[in-house]
Design goal:
There is one protein chain. By secondary structure, the chain is an alpha+beta fold. It has three domains: about 120 residues, Beta Barrel (Lipocalin); about 90 residues, Beta Barrel (Lipocalin), CATH 2.40.128; about 150 residues, Glutaredoxin, CATH 3.40.30. The chain contains five helices and 25 strands. It has a nine-stranded antiparallel sheet. Strands 10-11-12-14-15-16-17-18 form an eight-stranded antiparallel barrel. The longest helix is centred in the last third of the chain and has 19 residues.
Length: about 400
């Protein structure tokens, strides 16, 4: 596979900035259909699959992770270059188009300095991973107790995998959330799975040992790497997500006062929230687990908003800049169909979070949900979110949430 002189390409791509997304106005054609993309941080290849869709007058793209489809509908083409904004995230792929069937460029996180990862893609190569073995003689199917190992210690997780011959999909559930929709192959005694959602790129490789345990490696984004081990354990569970975050002693109420994207200050004493059950969602537009949770809350709110309930989002963004935060929140609300208020709570750093939320012990995870009754007393705080990629864990959360909301609304 060709390696990129990506700093030179990056300069060239930015020198010809995008000004159109109309196919007929560009001088180059990109083939519609299935593509295999590869991100190459530090000589590690993180593969993913995407679909290029011909919309007559424009091009759109779908990122594919197992059953998930993420629509990228702001694709811009100019001269021999394509620029692909990554959905709700402040990240972009810039690439040169070669003969309509090859892309060479970079994936950039715009909110971070020097976050540039080489990228390339090939049309028609729909295999995320290639296999070197005729048979898959190891079974990774089922539930696993996982230890992610780093210099800071061990982080516990649940691994859930669904294997069908050589194909495998699944995810890892951590206390803070999940790694969403992973998919790949079983190759002999080894497993390779990956995903790319626009803002996070994950690659897991593992080998089945003779005693049935798993040893593996995990790569994320530009530079993260850690070892992990796993053992089968159908009974293993993480800590109760409702027991990790709580009000500090001396605080009886959860109070907020933050601006919305129009600059208006919003707090719980406003008429809109008076005598209503309120769900406070702590999120960031950079957070894929928050994206999953926001999709759920947006749909739930549309169906239940007339029952005496409200949702308020508190967004902590990557920059301490109100205009930047407003731009990111507005885009997220448009893409995900959010009808409830999302307020600008501050920057995603420890000082800002502590200042904005002095009443809670610690913000352990994005997202975190705080549920208030009609008198705005804190009734539950849920840390993290197990999204649709977790299967039964997501279904369990939805059932518990609905039952508890029905109870509070009826009080």
């Amino acid at each position: 596979m060709r390696r990129l002189l990506f700093f030179s390409i990056f300069f060239i791509l930015y020198a010809c900035g995008p000004n159109t997304n109309h196919k007929e106005e560009s001088k180059v054609y990109i083939q519609a259909g299935s593509w295999r993309g590869v991100l190459v941080p530090n000589d590690i290849e993180i593969p993913f699959i995407f679909q290029v869709v011909d919309n007559d007058n424009s091009i759109s793209i779908q990122l594919i992770n197992a059953e998930e489809r993420i629509p990228l509908d702001e694709v811009q083409i100019e001269h021999d270059s394509i620029h692909i904004p990554m959905y709700i995230f402040d990240a972009t792929i810039h690439a040169r188009i070669e003969n309509g069937r090859l892309l060479n460029g970079v994936w950039v996180k715009n909110y971070l300095e020097d976050y540039v990862v080489p990228f390339e893609a090939t049309f028609g190569d729909i295999a995320r991973f290639t296999s070197n073995s005729e048979n898959s003689n190891a079974s990774f199917d089922g539930k696993w107790e996982v230890d992610f190992i780093s210099d800071e210690g061990v982080e516990k997780a649940i691994g859930i995998f669904n294997q069908r011959e050589k194909s495998i999909s699944g995810t890892f559930i951590l206390q803070s959330g999940d790694y969403r929709f992973l998919e790949g192959i079983v190759d002999g005694d080894s497993m390779k799975i990956s995903c790319f959602d626009g803002n996070h790129a994950y690659l897991f490789k593992a080998r089945m040992l003779a005693d049935g345990r798993i040893e593996g490696d995990f790569w994320s984004g530009k530079s993260w790497h850690q070892k992990w081990v796993a053992r089968r354990n159908d009974d293993f569970e993480l800590s109760d997500p409702y027991a990790l975050t709580f009000l500090k002693d001396g605080y009886e109420k959860f109070e907020i006062k933050f601006p919305n994207t129009a600059g208006d200050l919003v707090d719980l004493s406003d008429e809109r929230y008076k005598d209503k059950v309120v769900v406070v969602q702590i999120l960031g537009t950079w957070c894929p687990n928050c994206m999953d949770e926001t999709r759920f809350y947006a749909d739930w709110y549309r169906k239940n908003r007339n029952r005496g309930v409200e949702i308020i989002g508190l967004a902590f963004e990557r920059k301490a800049d109100v205009d930047y935060a407003s731009e990111r929140i507005i885009k997220m609300k448009e893409k995900l169909g959010v009808d409830y208020e999302v307020l600008i709570a501050g920057a995603n750093n420890p000082e800002s979070k502590a200042e904005a939320l002095p009443m809670i012990n610690k913000l352990v995870s994005f997202p975190t949900t705080i549920i208030l009754d009609k008198e705005h007393n804190v009734r539950k705080i849920h840390t993290g979110f197990t999204g649709p990629g977790t299967g039964i864990y997501y279904e369990r959360f939805v059932e518990e949430f609905n039952l508890f909301m029905d109870k509070l609304i009826s009080e």
